[in-house]
Amino acid sequence: MKIGKIIGSVWATKKDESLNGYKLLIAKLVNVDKPKDEQAPIVCADTIGAGVGETVILTCGSGARNATPNSHVPIDATVVAIVDDLEIGGVKKSV
Asked: pLDDT digit string (tens) for 8-30?
């Protein structure tokens, strides 16, 4: 699993039919030890109602497909949780 920040949404009118009903979001992966590290954003399917600006937990690969009701959906990342707080080594990190 990975931590990311939702930075946008994707709309696609033409797509694989199995993606119908899934909200697609753009997430920027977060390195909690080095918050300034830049990584390329990824597209993820949202199954829990996350929104722009929220910090989330993502699962990728086959775990992403297993997190959906239909494990045959062609997705590589899924939002599985919205982060409320984050603590590393006894120190709270801002999310």
From this structure: 999 998 988 888 888 999 999 98
